[in-house]
Amino acid sequence: MWTTHSLWFEIAVVSIIYAVGNIFFGHFEEQTPKVRRVGKYVLTLMIVCLLSVYFSRTVAMTVLSLFSLPFLYVHSYYLPKKKGINGWTGEPKRRYYEFRGWNKNIFKEQAEKLDDL
User: Fold this and answer.
1) CB–CB of 57/9 below 8 Å?
2) Under a CB-based contact definition with an 8 Å cutoff, are residues 64 and 58 in contact?
3) Does 92 sit behind a cis peptide bond, omega within 30 degrees of 0 on the bond before it?
4) CA angle at 78 for the pair 75 and 80, rounded to the nearest 5°
5) CA dist 41 → 94, 104, 108, 111 (Å)
6) Residue 51 domain boundaries
7) Residue 80 contacts residue 86 (beta carbons within 8 Å)
8) pLDDT in tens, 93-117
9) How far apart are CA 66 and CA 13, in angstroms?
10) Angle made by CA atoms 62, 63, 65, in degrees to the nearest 5
11) How far is it, in rounded angstroms, from Cα 108 to Cα 102?
12) 10/57 same-domain check
């Protein structure tokens, strides 16, 4: 049961990556529906496990590593250079919310709540 020759290894690796990613980059997904966030995790898990079963663990881990390339491009080049948004903090929030197409009035609502106090 506790061998690395089972699919539990792939499940653990993908789960750790998503856990760490949510800790450090969860603020980029504030208004993303939870169903979509869970769906992205399940889809990644299915892809990695299927690749591991039908090809090999090496292929699965290579593809999983390649998934990080778009992440690195977006957070280290595209957001800061093209959109003027810090790729690590998501600031300025107004610009990031515009980029994602999210409701920017959340800031007005928060200010009104603070004024009421």
Assistant:
1) yes
2) no
3) yes
4) 75
5) 27, 27, 32, 34
6) 1-66
7) yes
8) 889 988 988 887 766 666 566 556 6
9) 14
10) 65
11) 14
12) yes
58 and 101 share one domain: no
Let me know whether 61 and 35 are in one domain: yes
Note the pLDDT tens digit of each residue in 10-21: 999 999 999 999
Q: 42-84, pLDDT tens digit by residue?
A: 999 999 999 999 999 999 999 999 999 998 999 999 999 999 9
Geometric angle at alpha carbon 6, from 48 and 35, rounded to 5°: 40
Helices (H) and strands (E) in the chain, counts: 6, 0
76: left (phi over 0), alpha (psi -120 to 50) or beta: alpha
Q: Tokens standing for 95?
A: 């610009």
Q: Which two tokens stand for residue 70?
A: 């778009």
